[in-house]
Design a protein that fits this description.
The chain is mainly α and 74 residues long. The protein has 4 helices and no strands.
């Protein structure tokens, strides 16, 4: 199967969107229960992703700015 440019872009968006959903959910859980181990791990994993070379390969979004916005949401 050949991946089109549009397909690659859609995949990149889906990866980022899933990380945003996971990060937002983990932050909400930690707000209620700051000791929740799995949510702490998820936050750390997502923050690592948002600051990674891989993230900058997928998008032009500034990972630090994205994290700040998501934290303010919660």
């Amino acid at each position: 199967m050949i991946m089109t440019e549009n397909g690659i872009e859609n995949l990149a968006h889906a990866i980022i969107l899933q990380a945003v959903k996971d990060y937002r959910k983990a932050l909400k859980i930690l707000k209620r229960n700051p000791r929740h181990k799995e949510s702490k791990e998820m936050v750390a994993d997502c923050e690592g992703f948002f600051l990674s070379k891989w993230f900058t390969t997928l998008t032009n979004i500034d990972g630090k700015v994205l994290m700040e916005k998501l934290k303010k949401e919660v």
